[in-house]
User: Which sequence fits this backbone?
């Protein structure tokens, strides 16, 4: 008898419709939209990395909040390495962050996650490589005094950037200056 009256039927339909309308729409996607997968040198910041947030109908979602997270090359979560940790999409659904300058080389992973639904996320990476040569130091073979005609022990050098990151594969040329007392490693001059 409950379904027999049109008023009861009307309230039932309204209740079901209201329940569907009250539930928030789920997002269709969070995706990397610009400047993903960058390579930068130590001591420089990345370009802005864009993420697009769209709703289930494919329209920009401007009401969402995105949480950015950063994982360093050792797998550790870093809290202060990005230009922003939270962002709201623009009218076009875009939200941006960037990797701040660092001297630690390796691959950094940046993830944008919908604050209200952790299943909606997108990730990209930034590779930080060693910077320009800044220091050439003797690792072994220092402080040798030789008599004319003798061969020195091997000299080993380390070329690093301003953060101490080793720069393999660079060609370094040397010249030797002689003195009346012999040759010392302090007289080796890189060209």
Assistant:
């Amino acid at each position: 008898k409950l379904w027999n009256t049109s008023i009861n039927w009307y309230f039932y339909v309204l209740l079901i419709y209201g329940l569907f309308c009250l539930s928030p729409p789920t997002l269709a996607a969070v995706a990397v939209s610009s400047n993903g997968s960058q390579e930068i040198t130590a001591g420089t910041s990345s370009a802005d990395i864009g993420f697009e947030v769209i709703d289930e109908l494919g329209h920009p979602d401007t009401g969402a909040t995105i949480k950015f997270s950063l994982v360093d090359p050792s797998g550790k979560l870093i809290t202060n390495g990005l230009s922003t940790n939270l962002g709201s999409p623009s009218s076009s659904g875009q939200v941006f962050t960037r990797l701040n300058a660092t001297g630690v080389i390796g691959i950094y992973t940046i993830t944008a996650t919908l604050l209200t639904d952790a299943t909606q996320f997108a990730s990209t990476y930034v590779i930080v490589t060693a910077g320009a040569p800044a220091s050439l130091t003797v690792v072994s073979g220092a402080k040798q005094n030789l008599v004319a005609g003798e061969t020195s022990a091997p000299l080993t050098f380390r070329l690093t950037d301003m953060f101490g990151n080793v720069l393999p594969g660079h060609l370094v040329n040397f010249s030797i200056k002689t003195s009346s007392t012999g040759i010392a490693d302090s007289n080796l001059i890189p060209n």
